[in-house]
Amino acid sequence: MTSIALIGPGAVGGAVAAWLAQNPALSVTVCARTPFQGLAIQTPGGAISADPVVLTDPAKATPVDWVLIATKTYDTASAEGWLDALVGPETRLAVLRNGVEHVEPFLDRLPATRIVPAVVDIPAERRAPGRILQRRDGWIRVPDDAAGRDFAALFAHTPIAVSTTPDFKTEAWKKLALNCAGAVNALALKPAGIAHDEGAAQVMRTLVAECVAVGRAEGADLPDDLPDAVIAGYRAGAPDGINSLHADRLAGRPMELDARNGVIVRRGAIHGIPTPANAMVVALINAAASAA
What are the angstrom distances between the C-alpha of 181 and each of 80, 107, 152, 199, 277? Predict the structure, then answer.
């Protein structure tokens, strides 16, 4: 039996843990801050549930075959205690996070060959601990190497489309383009339907265009029409959908603003590429959150 521990059972993490737990050949443990009773996920195909082991104390954890980190990027430090307990000499680590800086924070613990960076697009919202609305089956993309292929095999029994790619960098920057546009939702505190407003959509396009310029400088192969494609995706989705940045601001929680927009500004500066739109939304959202 393959043992899996998932750290961070939020919207995406909880949905992933529940789907993995549908396979009796996988032993799934969820590592959380506070205890909860089981996972109940409303998926596009109907409701599923799971009763994984839920741990709140790293001292009770033991090494596993796979650790999946689905915490927010600003929560890396909180995962350290779990990694101390869960990582053994053969453990592999999959990083299911936003942004383009998946591997770097964990290179002091595992060699790069045992770390699987994962680009995740599973629209989901946590309604309560362990209670999640999954709006689409979604997909996950990982590098096309031995660890990536083994990770993809864990999901063979699920409707989540997990695939490998020979150009992970491009996939990560494409997803960042989608995520950076979501800053408009967090700034305006309006769900995905705001993309139907042409003024808001044009701001989103500008954010994405800056992301494309920086991503290309980083070596990603990004198409010219990506800004329009991102807007089309927003408009085709559920108008009441709330992305995680928006949800975190509504709840008064820390936000992944640096991983979704700040990184564009930081890496743009390295390449001498101006990113005024992303810098502006980062400043405005931070100011609004501080005032609140």
Answer: 30, 29, 28, 13, 11
How far, in Å, CA of 75 to CA of 70, rounded? 10
190 & 77 share domain: no
Name the domain count of the chain.
2
Q: How confident is the model at residue 244 (pLDDT cuts 50, 70, 90)?
A: confident
One domain for residues 261 and 222: yes
d(CA 30, CA 80): 15
Q: Tokens 């959150």 belong to which residue?
A: 289
Residues 6+ apart with CB under 8 A from 48: 18, 19, 22, 40, 41
Residue that finishes a domain, picked among 131, 166, 201? 166
Q: What is the pLDDT of residues 51-75, one digit of tens each?
A: 999 999 999 999 999 999 999 888 8
Residues annotated as catalytic are 175
CA-closest candidate to residue 271, choices 219, 222, 206: 219
* Cα separation, 61 vs 31, whole angstroms: 9
Range of the domain at 46: 2-166
Question: Which of 110, 141, 166 corresponds to the end of one domain?
Answer: 166
Name residue 31's beta-bridge partners: 7, 55
Q: Parallel, antiparallel, or unpaired for β 39-43 and 46-50? A: antiparallel
**104-118 average pLDDT score:** 93
Is 0.85 topped by the overall pTM? yes
Within this chain, do residues 155 and 198 fall inside the same structural domain, yes or no?
no
pLDDT for 50:
96
Phi-psi region of 65 (alpha: psi -120 to 50; beta: other; left: phi over 0): alpha
